[in-house]
Amino acid sequence: MHRDTSSPSWYVAETIVRGEDQAQRNLERQGFASFCPRFRKVRRHARRVDYAMAPVFPGYLFVQFDRQRDAWRSINGTRGVRRLVGSSGSRPQAMPGPAMAALFDRCDGDRIAGLFSDVQQGQSVRLIAGPFANRLAEVERLDDRGRVHVLLELLGGNVSVHVELCAVGPA
Question: pTM for the full model?
Answer without folding.
Answer: 0.66
